[in-house]
Design a protein that fits this description.
The protein is mainly alpha-helical. It folds into three domains: 3-491, Cytochrome c oxidase-like, subunit I domain (Cytochrome C Oxidase, Chain A), CATH 1.20.210.10; 501-570, no CATH class; 690-725, no CATH class. It contains 26 helices and six strands. The chain has helices spanning 3-24, 30-43, 58-86, 105-132, 142-169, 175-206, 216-241, 244-275, 282-291, 308-320, 322-337, 340-345, 347-374, 381-412, 419-453, 458-491, 520-525, 581-594, 599-606, 616-625, 633-643, 653-667, 671-681, 690-694, 698-708, 716-725, and strands at residues 509-512, 533-536, 548-551, 561-562, 613-614, 651-652. β1 (509-512), α17 (520-525) and β2 (533-536) form a beta-alpha-beta unit. α18 crosses α22. The radius of gyration is 29 Å and the shape is globular.
Length: 726
């Protein structure tokens, strides 16, 4: 059997096993394995990890900051590389410092390597933010994440920059072999050790999620890291045994699966979060997740030195690779369309959405050029390289901007500085990268045509295209500079980010007319806040201190009737049995009372992707974990429909709050029951949230920490983190 088939079978088996246990957990082994991972991350290397801060978000911020630096370097090199195609003698003035003329391949290789490093930094950093949000907004070991980021930069700097400089001044025999060995060790062996630590950190963080829940971003990130580790192992093994098939497979994993998985991992967090909407289609999501790892991606293709049968299989898998890319792009674009206004105002979400818009275009173009290379024709080799570079600088560049504009503010807990400049950077990146790629493709095609015609002066015939491409790519450079400035300003900003604040209202009680419908947006527009008591289908007495508003739930006009006339409402007998969905909701109200949880806290614990809504499956798992009991899937539709006011098939926070308020108003007649409902509907002083704690003085935080038995030392932010973790 061919080595590539055996290696592929092993790889897919490992990914399936990892996917299963990531989704379902590992049972009783989860806790001891997490403790062991924490021990390794916090103790090894001895003393080094103690040099880094372990405050919430510090690890993710470090990854994003390093990535921004590498991104700037890659963009500068990319611009110089395109200009070098226009004028091959443009860099001859640098001969005094060691520059020697070549065809530009050395600069191109350096640019590709640096771009790959920056891409990894920024997208992994952005995904770490998403994973941390499933575990009280912090990684299992923030210090370890920062340490790994530093070591990764050190190893890549040594391999790409220091080694060439050293060999420039030191005459060593067999220089190329030594440089290849050092590159192999740093790029694949050392980086694998570092990303093993990242994987442990992610798994230890993700293991603290609520039972029965999953995160799309975490799944893609874990699969990407595992694939990267196996791909690196395959590459080392293939190079050591001179097995070209295994090396080819490792390249498809490292250059195809890993970057695409990271792109989708970040996009599935940024876009739903900004749109405040769930992922549009579960079927497209499953197609995206499964087919991505069983097909051959069309980017960075190399020739497969194999027989006709294997080439045919590779060509077939290459064709099918279009499906997961289209499925993911369409799914995320449809999700963004649910709230396009928020997307356009959010630079990070705008960047990710533009990337999804361009992904199918680049995928189709790369498919045709990759098919040519896979079969060994090599008629479109130059155009394939252009599309690969365009993919990294345009789609990859937009996703890196998304990490800077969306993930970094969440990690730093600061508002994004100058969103308008961020939007400008996103549009510059899109138009500059796309225009430069198209112009370069035209230049490549013209160059090939001129060469085939036998014309000697090829440069004179194509230089205009490369000059135009360099001018267009200049927009990309400006975009990166703008994003770097926004990152710096955000990091030094004093404006803290408040993701969700309680909406205060002077409306104490609100009456909904039974049998009519409304939307949460309409209720909020009428002055209803999170502290407002909702009464469904009955009158409310005005006792002098409260404002009572009775509004038809249709809300077809702007008329509001204050202090409505009393209406007689028939009350059901106390002996009447509670049937239907109300029974489960009553049990849920009792569960929230016993566990001293607010509706807000309960909802956040089950909405791990921060989409702002939960589907039937998520709600079913929440009922199971809350001791309400297992609700059969065929009966779940009625329960969701009883809560779902806008009939979109999803449950959001206000809808759940209203449903529980109705249940309490209907069945809880005692004062104690009403008091428990009030406790679950508002953020009281005894329920500590990030927003409420930050408003307190340090002395007050110390007193709270003493009562809870947690550490009273450190800064105000340290006290808040200690209280929340308790």
């Amino acid at each position: 059997m061919e080595p590539v088939l055996i290696a592929s079978a092993i790889l897919l088996s490992i990914l399936i096993i990892v996917s299963y246990y990531v989704t379902n957990g590992i049972g009783t082994m989860g806790v001891p394995m997490r403790q062991f991972a924490l021990f390794l991350m916090n103790k090894a290397p001895v003393g080094l990890v103690d040099l880094f801060k372990d405050e919430p978000g510090s690890g993710s911020r470090t990854w994003i900051k390093y990535g921004a630096g590498w991104f700037l370097l890659a963009t500068i090199c990319g611009f110089i590389g395109i200009w070098h195609k226009y004028d091959p003698t443009a860099l001859d003035s640098l001969a005094s410092i060691g520059w020697s003329y070549d065809d530009g391949s050395a600069l191109a290789d350096f640019t590709t390597a640096v771009m790959g490093i920056s891409f990894t930094y920024l997208l992994v950093g952005g995904c770490l933010v998403a994973v941390s949000r499933t575990a009280n907004n912090r990684l299992a070991s923030e210090a370890n994440a920062s340490m790994v980021a530093l070591l990764y930069t050190a190893s890549m700097t040594f391999s790409l920059i220091l080694i060439p400089i050293i060999f420039r001044f030191v005459d060593i025999s067999d220089e190329q072999s030594i440089r290849d060995f050092i590159t192999l060790m740093t790029t694949y062996v050392v980086s694998s050790l570092l990303f093993t630590a990242v994987l442990m950190n992610v798994l230890a963080t993700y293991s603290t999620r609520a039972e029965g829940t999953t995160s799309i971003t975490a799944w893609f990130l874990i699969m990407a890291i595992v694939a990267k580790l196996i791909g690196s192992l395959y590459h080392v093994f293939g190079e050591a045994t001179d097995n070209t098939q295994v090396v080819w497979l490792s390249e498809r994993v490292l250059d195809g699966w890993v970057p695409l998985a990271l792109i989708f991992a970040l996009a599935y967090h940024v876009i739903p979060y900004a749109a405040k909407a769930p992922v549009w289609s579960g079927s497209l999501l499953n197609t995206n997740m499964i087919l991505l790892f069983v097909t051959v991606p069309p980017f960075f293709m190399t020739e497969a030195n194999a027989g006709e049968l294997l080439q045919n299989i590779g060509a077939l898998l290459l064709t099918f690779s279009i499906l997961p890319l289209f499925a993911g792009a369409i799914n995320l674009l449809a999700t963004a369309s649910a709230n396009s206004g928020n997307i356009l105002k959010n630079p990070g979400a705008l960047s990710a959405t533009l990337a999804m818009f361009l992904l199918p275009i680049f995928a189709v173009g790369s498919y045709f050029t990759s098919m040519d290379i896979l079969t060994g024709t090599d008629k479109m080799l130059t155009m394939s390289s252009t599309l690969d570079d365009g993919f990294m600088f345009t789609i990859g560049g937009l996703m890196m901007l998304s990490a800077i504009f969306s993930s970094y503010p969440l990690a730093a807990r600061k508002k994004l500085a100058d969103p308008s400049r961020g939007n400008m950077a996103a549009w510059f990146m899109m138009f500059g990268g796309l225009a430069a790629t198209i112009t370069m493709l035209i230049g490549n095609f013209t160059e090939k045509a001129v060469l085939d015609s036998g014309v000697e002066d090829v440069v004179a015939s194509t230089s205009g295209f490369y000059l135009t491409a360099a001018a267009m790519f200049y927009l990309v450079a400006i975009s990166v500079i703008l994003s770097t400035l926004v990152l710096i300003r955000t990091s030094t900003s004093s404006q803290n980010l408040v993701e969700l604040t309680s909406s205060e209202s002077d409306v104490k009680t609100y009456t909904l007319v039974e049998g009519t419908t409304t939307t949460i947006q309409q209720l909020i527009g009428r002055g209803v806040g999170v502290n407002t008591a909702l009464v469904v289908g009955q009158s409310v007495n005005d006792e002098g201190g409260s404002t009572v508003i009775a509004v038809s739930a249709t809300l077809h006009n702007d008329e509001v009737t204050e202090f409505p006339e009393q209406e007689t409402v028939e009350e059901s007998s106390e002996e009447e049995d509670v049937k239907g969905p109300d029974k489960e909701l009553i049990m849920l109200v009792d569960y929230l009372k016993k566990t001293n949880q607010s509706v807000f806290e309960f909802f956040r614990s089950i909405d791990l992707d921060d989409s702002g809504s939960i589907d039937g499956f998520e709600f079913q798992q929440a009922l199971i974990s809350s001791d309400v009991g297992e609700y059969p899937p065929w009966e779940l539709e009625g329960l969701v429909a009883a809560i779902d006011l806008d009939k979109d098939g999803k449950i959001n926070l206000p809808e759940l709050d209203i449903a529980l308020a109705r249940i309490a108003a209907t069945y809880n007649s005692s004062d104690e029951a009403e008091e428990s409902l009030s406790d679950t509907s508002e953020d009281s002083s005894s329920e500590y949230t990030q927003a409420s704690l930050t408003k307190l003085k340090k002395a007050e935080l110390i007193e709270i920490a003493k009562e809870m038995g947690v550490s009273t030392s450190g800064t105000k932010s340290d006290l808040v983190a200690a209280i929340l973790s308790a």
